[in-house]
C-alpha cells in the first residue's frame, strides 16, 4: 500500500501515524498520510529533515491498518483523519499502540483500537478509526474563503490547528481543519467523495502538515510562516507519496520540507489561550522552512486530527502535563490533485487567517456554523483575551460537533452562544447565530450520523463521500460521536466547554507522548511540567482524558450537556477544595470540564485526594447507580473503568429503541454484539431488571448462538437464568432447552447436566424445545448418530445452532464407529444420508449429489479410505478406514481459540 | 415452662462454667464435646439456655472469676448462640457459634495433644448443622442462604489447623481429626452442589505425606470413601467408584442400615454398569426397590421396562445423580435382547444362528412397543459392535448382523462398557 511506500521515508519516530487514503479517485489516495506521531522532542527537526524517514515507520503500521480498513468504506478519509482518529483511539486502547510498534502516538493505530476496545479489544491491529471519511473537509470551503480569511486573521492561533492537508487530507481531517480547507481547498480539491477504502491503504502517508499548522497560528508572522509550512508539508508528502505512487505529488512535495512538531500545535488547537503561545513557537520553527506550498491542507488536517484527540485529552487533563512535549509531525500528504498550485496559494492566504483556528476555518464548517462562529467572535471584538477564549471555546464546540456528527446537522443559527467564563474574559457576545454556511452539503450527509468506531470522531462528520463506508463504521463509532457531542454540549456551558476543548486537542499530543498504552504514565510526567504554561494545563487535561477516555466516551451524548452543566457547576463549587484541578485549568477553562468528563469515581477520588483522601473503596456504589440521560440510540461498548456517567447512559426508553435498532439492523454480528453489550452495560449500571433486561439478554444470546459465539452466549445464559429465577417472564423454555444443549454438547459436565435436568419442571418437560434438547442429550450420551442427525434436522428455535457446534464431533464418532462395525464397505450415499450431509444440499437448493460430494470431501479430509465397488458406487472401506481415521486440525484454528475473532476473517465478513 | 428463679438460673450457669473449666483443666475431651453440642438438644443444655434467657447478665458471671474469664471468648458467644438457638433464631445462633468456634480453634491450636479432638468434632458438626438450619431460615425469609458457604470456609480453616499441626515434626497428634473435618466439608459441598471444591481437600488427604489413610478412624474412612465414591460416579469412572464404594460397604458397621443403604444406592448402579446384577433380596432388604425393574429389564432385555423404570423414578435418580449411569444401561439391554434373538435362532437353526437380520430386531422391538426404523436399529447395532458388547460385523448391503461364532456376546465381567 501507499503507506508502505512512505515507510521508505524512514522518518524517525516523529510521525507516528500516517494515514493514507487511497481514494478511488486517485489523486488523493497517495496522501492521506498524516503522521500522528507527535513526539514532542522532534518538533523542529521535522520540518526539514525527516519527514520522510519518520514516516517510514508509521507506514508499516498503517499498511496494516489500511488493510483492515479497506473493508470499510470509511477508511478513505483515514489519511488525514488518521491523525485525529488515532488520538481518540489512544484513549481507549492503549494497547493498540503497542501494536503499532515504534510509533508512540500513531494516531491511526489508536483509532482503530478505540473501537476495538469496545468489543474487540483483541484486534489492536485495527486501524479503522483512522479512516473516517475525510471528504467533508474538501467541501467546506468553497464559497466562504473570504470570510474565513477574515476570521483567520482574527484568530491567528487557530492557524496551526487548521493546517489542512491536501484536499484529501483535509477531508479526512475534516472536522478539525474544516475552515482552512474550505477556503483553500475547495477549489483545488476535487473532493473524492467516494472513499475507496482499499485505495486508502496503499496511500498512507504520514502527514507532517498538522504539526506545521500550529506553528502557523502565530498569525501575523504567520503568513510567512504559513507558507513555510505548506511548503514543508509538501516535501513530506512527496516522500510518502512517492511510494504510494503518485509522482506528481512527489515533486511538489519534495521541494517542501516536512516539519513541524506539533506539541504546541496541539495545545494551540485546544484552544485555550495559553496553548497558543506554544503554538507560536512551533510555528516559528516552521516558518523558516518553506514558502508556499500546497501541503497546507495536509497540515491543517493534521491539526484537525489533533483537536479530535483532545477529547481524550480532556479526561486526561489531570495527568497530562504537557502536550507541548509532543511534537506532532504532521505530514500532510496532500493528494496529488490537491497539490495543484493554485490551491496552495489560496491556502497560504487563508492560512494566516485560518491560523487562528483550524477548527474554525470556514471551509470545513457549515455555513450556519460559520455564522455562529462569527457571532461568537463578534461579541468579543474588543477584548482579545475573551476572543482567545472564545476561539478556544469555538474549537471545542466544533470538535465536539464533529465528533457527534452534529456539525452539519445542528441548527447553528439557533444555537445559543456560549459565554466565555469571566476569568477568561468572555465570549458571550461573540457567538451569534452562525450565518455562514459554506459546507451545507455535508450537513445532510448521512455520514455524520453514522458513527464509526473505526473512524476518528471528528473526521466522520466531515466526510460525505465516505458515508457508505462510514455508515458501517458509524455503528461502531457511535459512541465516539457521542462523546464529541457531549463536548459540544459542554461548549454550551462556557466553562465546561473550554476544558473539554483543551483536552481534545491535547489528545493528539498524548498519543504522541505515549507510544503505547501507558498514556497514564505519560500523563503523570506531563503533569509535573504543567505548572508553567497554560498549555501545560491543557496537556494535563488531555492526559486525563486519555485516561478516562472510556468514561468520557460515555458522556458524549447531547443530553449530557445539561447534566454536564450542572455537574460542572458542582465541580466549580468544589474547586476550592482541590487545588490540583484548578491548576489544570488554564486561564480560560474552568475546572469544570475535567470533571464533567470524568465520570469515573476514580477520577473523583483522585481529584479529592489532597483534601478529602477519598478512597475508591469508600465510594458509595449505590449512590452511583445512575439514571441515564443519554438519548443516543447507538452507543459503543466500552468497559467501564470508572463510575458510569449518567450523561452517557441511556434511559430505559432509549434502550428499548436501541434494542429494536439492533434487532432490525442489517449489520454484522460484531456490530450487534457491541451494541448489545453497551445496552447491557447501561441496563446494569441503572439496575434495570425487568422484561427489557430479559429481552436484551435473550436477543444477545440468540445472536451469539447464531454465530457460534459461545462465550458471549454463556454470559447471557447465566444472566438469564438469574433473571428467570427472579420471576421475570421471558422465553424460559426456549432457553432452558439451549441451556441443556449447551451443557450436554459443550461443557460435558455431568453434575451440571444433572442439575439442569433435575430443575426442569414437568411443564418444561412437555415443551417441544426442551423435549428436543433432552432427546439430543440422550442421542449424544448413547452415541446414537442417526437420532442425533434426525434431531438436528427437526430442531426448533436455534437449537440447530448449538448442535452445529457438535456436528463435527458427532460425525467423527459415527465414522469411527461405522468403520469398526461395518464390513466390508459402507456406501457413501448412506453415510451422507445418515450423517446429515444431504441437509446441506437441501439448503443449497442443489441436488442430493452435493451432499454426497460434501460427504466425500469430509471423509477424505478425515483420512477415510474409499473405494469404488463394481457398480461404480463409492464405498467406505471400513476395515482400511478403521485405522486411518483421524480428526484433522480445524483449518480456521487460531491461537486464541476463537476463529470468529480473527481480524482478517472479521474484515472479510464486514464488507 | 416452669418459672425459673434467678437463683436457679445463676446456679445453672455457674454449673456449666465449672464443668467447662474442669473439662479443659482435666483435658476431658468427651465432657467438653458434650458441652458444645447445641443441636443435640440435651436436657442440660436446654435448661442452661432457659437459665440464660432469665439471667441476662451471664457475661458478668464469666468475668467474675479468673477461672472462667480465661474462656470468656469462647463461652460468651457460645452462651449467646445457645440463647438464640433456644429462641429459634438460628441465623444469630450460627453467627455466635461460629465466633465461639473461632475462639476455640485458637485455643485448640495451642494445645499440644489432640485430647480435644472430640470437642472439635462436635464443633465441626454443630457448625454445619447450625448453618444448614440457618440457611433454611434465611431462605424462608426470602434472603439468600449463605451460612453454609460460610461454614464451608470455616471448616477449611479448621482443616488447615489440623493439617498444619503436623508440619513441624512429621506427624502430629491432631492429624487424625482431619478426615472428620473433610467429611463434614464433603457434606457441605454436596449439599451446596459445589462438589468440585472437594478436589483440593481430597488431594491433600491422598497426597500429603502427613496423612496415613489407615490411621484415620474407621467411621471417617467409610464416610470419606462413600463421598469420593459418589464423586467417581459423577465422573462415570466406574471401576474407581466400585472400589471406593465397596470399601465403604465392607467397612461400614452392619448395624447402620441407613448408611449401608446410602452406599448401596450408588454401588448398585455402578455394579450394574459393569455387568454385575444384585440379588433381589438385597434390594428388598435395604428398601432399594426402585432398582428392581431396572435389574429385571437387564435380565430380560426389556427396553420398554428399563425406560419406564427410569421414567418412573426420574426425579429421584436425577437428584441422587445416578440417572445418567442408569440410562447407559440401555446398551446392555439391547445386548441382552440381541442375545435372546440369537439364542432363539440357534434353537431353530444352529447353522444360521450367527446371522441376525435387522428386520428381526426391528420386529422384536416392535413387540416391546418401541418403534424404531431400520436406520436407527442399524445404528444401535453398530454401536454395540463398536463398544464390544457384541462381536461380529454388520453387513450393510444385506442388512444383516454377522455374529462371531465364538462368544458373540462377551460379558462385561466387572469391566465398564467401552466408551
UniProtKB/TrEMBL annotation, chain A:
Residues of the PCI domain: 709-890
Pfam family, one: SAC3_GANP
Spans annotated as Disordered: 1-75, 172-229, 494-587
Biased composition (Low complexity): 1-11, 27-58
Polar residues composition bias: residue spans: 13-26, 62-75, 494-512
Compositional bias annotation for Basic and acidic residues: 558-580
Positions with biased composition (Pro residues): 188-200
GO CC aspect terms: nucleus
Matches recorded under InterPro entries: PCI_dom, SAC3/GANP/THP3, SAC3/GANP/THP3_conserved
Matches recorded under PANTHER family: 80 KDA MCM3-ASSOCIATED PROTEIN, LEUKOCYTE RECEPTOR CLUSTER MEMBER 8
Protein name, UniProt field: PCI domain-containing protein
Protein source organism: Linum tenue
UniProtKB/TrEMBL annotation, chain B:
Residue ranges crossing the lipid bilayer per the database entry: none
GO biological process: poly(A)+ mRNA export from nucleus; post-transcriptional tethering of RNA polymerase II gene DNA at nuclear periphery; transcription elongation by RNA polymerase II
Signal peptide: none
A GO CC term attached to the entry: transcription export complex 2
GO function terms (MF aspect): double-stranded DNA binding; RNA binding
Superkingdom of the source species: Eukaryota
Residues covered by the PCI domain: 222-408
Pfam families xref list: PCI
PANTHER family membership: PCI DOMAIN-CONTAINING PROTEIN 2, UNCHARACTERIZED PROTEASOME COMPONENT REGION PCI-CONTAINING
Protein known as: PCI domain-containing protein
Organism: Linum tenue
Amino acid at each position: 500500500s501507499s503507506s508502505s511506500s512512505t515507510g521508505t521515508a524512514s522518518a524517525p519516530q516523529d510521525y507516528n501515524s500516517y494515514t493514507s487514503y487511497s481514494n478511488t479517485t486517485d489523486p488523493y489516495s497517495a496522501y492521506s498520510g498524516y503522521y500522528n506521531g507527535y513526539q514532542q522532542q522532534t518538533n523542529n527537526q521535522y520540518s526539514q529533515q525527516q519527514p520522510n524517514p519518520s514516516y517510514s515507520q508509521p507506514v508499516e503500521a498503517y499498511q496494516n491498518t489500511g488493510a483492515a480498513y479497506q473493508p470499510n468504506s470509511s477508511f478513505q478519509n483515514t489519511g488525514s483523519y488518521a491523525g485525529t482518529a488515532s488520538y481518540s483511539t489512544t484513549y481507549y486502547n492503549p494497547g493498540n499502540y503497542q501494536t503499532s510498534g515504534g510509533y508512540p502516538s500513531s494516531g491511526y493505530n489508536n483509532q482503530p483500537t478505540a473501537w476495538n476496545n469496545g468489543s474487540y479489544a483483541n484486534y489492536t491491529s485495527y486501524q479503522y478509526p483512522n479512516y473516517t471519511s475525510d471528504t467533508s473537509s474538501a467541501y467546506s470551503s468553497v464559497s466562504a474563503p473570504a470570510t474565513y480569511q477574515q476570521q483567520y486573521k482574527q484568530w491567528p492561533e487557530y492557524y496551526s490547528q487548521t493546517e489542512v492537508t491536501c484536499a484529501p487530507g483535509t477531508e479526512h481531517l475534516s472536522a478539525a481543519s474544516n475552515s482552512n480547507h474550505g477556503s483553500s481547498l475547495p477549489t483545488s480539491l476535487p473532493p473524492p467523495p467516494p472513499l475507496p477504502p482499499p485505495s486508502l491503504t496503499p496511500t498512507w502517508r504520514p502527514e507532517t502538515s498538522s504539526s506545521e499548522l500550529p506553528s502557523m497560528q502565530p498569525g501575523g508572522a504567520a503568513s510567512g510562516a504559513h507558507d513555510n509550512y505548506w511548503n514543508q508539508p509538501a516535501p513530506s508528502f512527496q516522500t510518502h507519496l512517492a511510494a504510494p505512487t503518485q509522482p506528481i505529488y512527489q515533486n511538489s512535495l519534495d521541494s517542501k520540507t516536512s516539519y513541524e512538531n506539533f506539541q504546541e500545535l496541539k495545545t494551540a488547537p485546544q484552544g485555550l489561550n495559553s496553548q497558543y503561545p506554544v503554538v507560536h513557537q512551533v510555528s516559528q520553527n516552521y516558518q523558516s522552512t518553506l514558502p508556499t506550498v500546497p501541503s497546507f491542507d495536509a497540515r491543517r488536517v493534521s491539526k484537525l486530527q489533533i483537536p479530535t484527540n483532545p477529547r481524550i485529552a480532556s479526561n486526561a487533563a489531570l495527568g497530562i502535563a504537557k502536550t507541548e512535549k509532543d511534537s506532532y509531525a504532521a505530514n500532510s500528504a496532500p493528494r496529488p490533485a490537491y497539490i495543484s498550485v493554485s490551491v496552495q496559494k489560496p491556502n497560504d492566504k487563508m492560512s494566516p487567517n485560518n491560523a487562528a483556528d483550524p477548527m474554525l476555518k470556514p471551509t470545513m464548517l457549515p455555513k450556519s456554523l460559520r455564522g455562529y462562529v462569527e457571532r461568537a467572535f463578534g461579541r468579543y471584538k474588543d477584548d482579545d483575551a475573551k476572543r482567545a477564549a472564545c476561539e478556544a471555546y469555538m474549537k471545542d464546540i466544533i470538535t465536539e460537533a464533529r465528533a457527534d456528527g452534529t456539525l452539519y446537522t445542528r441548527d447553528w443559527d439557533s444555537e445559543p452562544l456560549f459565554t466565555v467564563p469571566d476569568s477568561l474574559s468572555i465570549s458571550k457576545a461573540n457567538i451569534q447565530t452562525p450565518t455562514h454556511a459554506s459546507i451545507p452539503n455535508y450537513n445532510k450527509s448521512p455520514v455524520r450520523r453514522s458513527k464509526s468506531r473505526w473512524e476518528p470522531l471528528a473526521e466522520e462528520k466531515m466526510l460525505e463521500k465516505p458515508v457508505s463506508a462510514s455508515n458501517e463504521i458509524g455503528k461502531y463509532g457511535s459512541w465516539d460521536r457521542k462523546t464529541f457531542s457531549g463536548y459540544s454540549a459542554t461548549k454550551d456551558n462556557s466553562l465546561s466547554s473550554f476544558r473539554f476543548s483543551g483536552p481534545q486537542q491535547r489528545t493528539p499530543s498524548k498519543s504522541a507522548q505515549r507510544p503505547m498504552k501507558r498514556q497514564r504514565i505519560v500523563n503523570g510526567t506531563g503533569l509535573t511540567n504543567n505548572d508553567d504554561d497554560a498549555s501545560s494545563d491543557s496537556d494535563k487535561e488531555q492526559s486525563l482524558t486519555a485516561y478516562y477516555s472510556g468514561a468520557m466516551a460515555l458522556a458524549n451524548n447531547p443530553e449530557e450537556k445539561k447534566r454536564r452543566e450542572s455537574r460542572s457547576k458542582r465541580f466549580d463549587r468544589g474547586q476550592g477544595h482541590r487545588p490540583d484541578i484548578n491548576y489544570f485549568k488554564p486561564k480560560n477553562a474552568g475546572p469544570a470540564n475535567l470533571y464533567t468528563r470524568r465520570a469515573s469515581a476514580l477520577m473523583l477520588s483522585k481529584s479529592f485526594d489532597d483534601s478529602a483522601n477519598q478512597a475508591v473503596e469508600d465510594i458509595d456504589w449505590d449512590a452511583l447507580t445512575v439514571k441515564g440521560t443519554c438519548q443516543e440510540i447507538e452507543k459503543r461498548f466500552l468497559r467501564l473503568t470508572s463510575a458510569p456517567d449518567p450523561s452517557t447512559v441511556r434511559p430505559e426508553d432509549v434502550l428499548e429503541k436501541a434494542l429494536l435498532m439492533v434487532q432490525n439492523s442489517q449489520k454484522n454480528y460484531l456490530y450487534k454484539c457491541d451494541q448489545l453489550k453497551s445496552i447491557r452495560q447501561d441496563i446494569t449500571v441503572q439496575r434495570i431488571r425487568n422484561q427489557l433486561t430479559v429481552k436484551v439478554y435473550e436477543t444477545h444470546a440468540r445472536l451469539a448462538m447464531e454465530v457460534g459465539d459461545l462465550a458471549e452466549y454463556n454470559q447471557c445464559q447465566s444472566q438469564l437464568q438469574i433473571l428467570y429465577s427472579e420471576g421475570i417472564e421471558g422465553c424460559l423454555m426456549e432457553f432452558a432447552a439451549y441451556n441443556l444443549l449447551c451443557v450436554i454438547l459443550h461443557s460435558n459436565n455431568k453434575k451440571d447436566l444433572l442439575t439442569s435436568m433435575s430443575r426442569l419442571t414437568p411443564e418444561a418437560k412437555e415443551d417441544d424445545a426442551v423435549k428436543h434438547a433432552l432427546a439430543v442429550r440422550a442421542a449424544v450420551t448413547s452415541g446414537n448418530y442417526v437420532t442425533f442427525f434426525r434431531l438436528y434436522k427437526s430442531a426448533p428455535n436455534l437449537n440447530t445452532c448449538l448442535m452445529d457446534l457438535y456436528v463435527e464431533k458427532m460425525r467423527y464418532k459415527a465414522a469411527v464407529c461405522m468403520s469398526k462395525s461395518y464390513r466390508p464397505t459402507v456406501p457413501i450415499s448412506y453415510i451422507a444420508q445418515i450423517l446429515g450431509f444431504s441437509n446441506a444440499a437441501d439448503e443449497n437448493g442443489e441436488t442430493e449429489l452435493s451432499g454426497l460430494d460434501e460427504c466425500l470431501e469430509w471423509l477424505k479430509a478425515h483420512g477415510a479410505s474409499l473405494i469404488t465397488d463394481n457398480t461404480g458406487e463409492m464405498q467406505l472401506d471400513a476395515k482400511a478406514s478403521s485405522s486411518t481415521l483421524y480428526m484433522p486440525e480445524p483449518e480456521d484454528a487460531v491461537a486464541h481459540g476463537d476463529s470468529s475473532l480473527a481480524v482478517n476473517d472479521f474484515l472479510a465478513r464486514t464488507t | 415452662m416452669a418459672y425459673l428463679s434467678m437463683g436457679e438460673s445463676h446456679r445453672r450457669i455457674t454449673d456449666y462454667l465449672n464443668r467447662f473449666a474442669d473439662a479443659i483443666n482435666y483435658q476431658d475431651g468427651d465432657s467438653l464435646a458434650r458441652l458444645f453440642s447445641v443441636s443435640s438438644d440435651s436436657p442440660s443444655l436446654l435448661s442452661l439456655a432457659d437459665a440464660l434467657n432469665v439471667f441476662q447478665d451471664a457475661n458478668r458471671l464469666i468475668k467474675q472469676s479468673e477461672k472462667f474469664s480465661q474462656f470468656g471468648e469462647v463461652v460468651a458467644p457460645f452462651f449467646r448462640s445457645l440463647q438464640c438457638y433456644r429462641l429459634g433464631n438460628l441465623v444469630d445462633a450460627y453467627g455466635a457459634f461460629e465466633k465461639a468456634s473461632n475462639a476455640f480453634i485458637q485455643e485448640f491450636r495451642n494445645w499440644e495433644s489432640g485430647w480435644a479432638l472430640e470437642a472439635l468434632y462436635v464443633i465441626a458438626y454443630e457448625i454445619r448443622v447450625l448453618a444448614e438450619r440457618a440457611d433454611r431460615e434465611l431462605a424462608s425469609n426470602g434472603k439468600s442462604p449463605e451460612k453454609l458457604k460460610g461454614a464451608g470456609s470455616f471448616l477449611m480453616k479448621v482443616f488447615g489447623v489440623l493439617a498444619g499441626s503436623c508440619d513441624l515434626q512429621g506427624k502430629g497428634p491432631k492429624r487424625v481429626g482431619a478426615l472428620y473435618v473433610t467429611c463434614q466439608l464433603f457434606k457441605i459441598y454436596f449439599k451446596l452442589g459445589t462438589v468440585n471444591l472437594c478436589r483440593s481437600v481430597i488431594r491433600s488427604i491422598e497426597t500429603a505425606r502427613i496423612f496415613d489413610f489407615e490411621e484415620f478412624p474407621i467411621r471417617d474412612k467409610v464416610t470419606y470413601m462413600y463421598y469420593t465414591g459418589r464423586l467417581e460416579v459423577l465422573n462415570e469412572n466406574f471401576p474407581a467408584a466400585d472400589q471406593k464404594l465397596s470399601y465403604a460397604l465392607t467397612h461400614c458397621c452392619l448395624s447402620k442400615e441407613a448408611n449401608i443403604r446410602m452406599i448401596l444406592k450408588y454401588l448398585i448402579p455402578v455394579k450394574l454398569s459393569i455387568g454385575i446384577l444384585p440379588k433381589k433380596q438385597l434390594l428388598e432388604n435395604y428398601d432399594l426397590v426402585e432398582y428392581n425393574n431396572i435389574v429385571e429389564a437387564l435380565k430380560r432385555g426389556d427396553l420398554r421396562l428399563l425406560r419406564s423404570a427410569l421414567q418412573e423414578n426420574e426425579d429421584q435418580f436425577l437428584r441422587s445423580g445416578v440417572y445418567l449411569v442408569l440410562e447407559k444401561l440401555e446398551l446392555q439391554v439391547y445386548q441382552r435382547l440381541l442375545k435372546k434373538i440369537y439364542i432363539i435362532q440357534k434353537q431353530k437353526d444352529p447353522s444360521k444362528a450367527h446371522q441376525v437380520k435387522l428386520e428381526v430386531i426391528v420386529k422384536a422391538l416392535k413387540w416391546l412397543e418401541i418403534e424404531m426404523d431400520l436406520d436407527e436399529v442399524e445404528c444401535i447395532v453398530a454401536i454395540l459392535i463398536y463398544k464390544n458388547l457384541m462381536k461380529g460385523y454388520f453387513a450393510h448391503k444385506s442388512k444383516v448382523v454377522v455374529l462371531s461364532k465364538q462368544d458373540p456376546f462377551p460379558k462385561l465381567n466387572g469391566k465398564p462398557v467401552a466408551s
